Amino acid sequence: MLDVLGKSTSINVRKVLWLCQLLGLDYRHLGADGTHSADATALQSRNPNGLVPVIRDGDFVLWESNSICRYLAARAQRDDLLPQEPQSRAQVEQWMDWQATDLNTAWRYVFMSRVRQHPAYTDEAAAATSLAQWNRLMQQLDQQLADTRAYVAGPVFTLADIVLGLSTQRWLMTPGEKPDLPAVQAWFGRLAGHAGFDQHCRNGIP
What we know:
four-stranded mixed sheet, globular, GST_C, alpha+beta, Glutaredoxin, Glutathione S-transferase Yfyf (Class Pi), Chain A, domain 2, 2 domains, 8% strand, 206 residues, Glutathione_S-Trfase_N, 57% helix
C-alpha cells in the first residue's frame, strides 16, 4: 500500500493525488481529515523539513512533490508522463522546475493575501506586485503553449502539465486584473479530459 501524507488543500499534495488517480494507484491518504493520525505523525517526522507531501512505498520514504511525481511515473513505467529519452525528459523537468521556483515564488504573496486572507500578507502593494509578476510568467507559459499548440512540453500530456495545471487553477481563482491568455485557456480545457483533473485540479472552477 502506498501512503500519501498531506491535506488536499496543499497544491503540492494535489500534484501527487492527481497523479495517483491518473495512474490508477491503490493508495492511502493520510492526514487529510484527522484520520490515521499516528501514522501521519510518524510519516511526517521522516521529512526533516516537516512539510508535505511525503509518501511511503513499503519501506521507502520520499518527500518533495516533484521528486515524488517523477518517482511514481517511473515506478509505473509511464514514459509518456516522464520520457526516458534525455532531451524529451529534460524539457518536461525544465517546466516542472520552473513551476516550483519562478512561478511559485511569484504567486505566493497575492494568493496568501487575496485567497487565503492570511494575516501576515496584508500589504496590498506587495500583493499587486506579486500578481504582476505572476501575470508576466503566465504570459510566458501562454507563449509556450501557443508554440506547442497542445501541452506544455510538446504534443503529449506529461508531468509538466500536472504541476502547471495546478498553478494555473490558482491563477484563475485569485482575484485581480489578469491578461487574456487564449493558449492557456484552451490548454486548461484540454486538461479536463484527463483522469483526476476534476477531483484534484479544477477545484470548483467551471
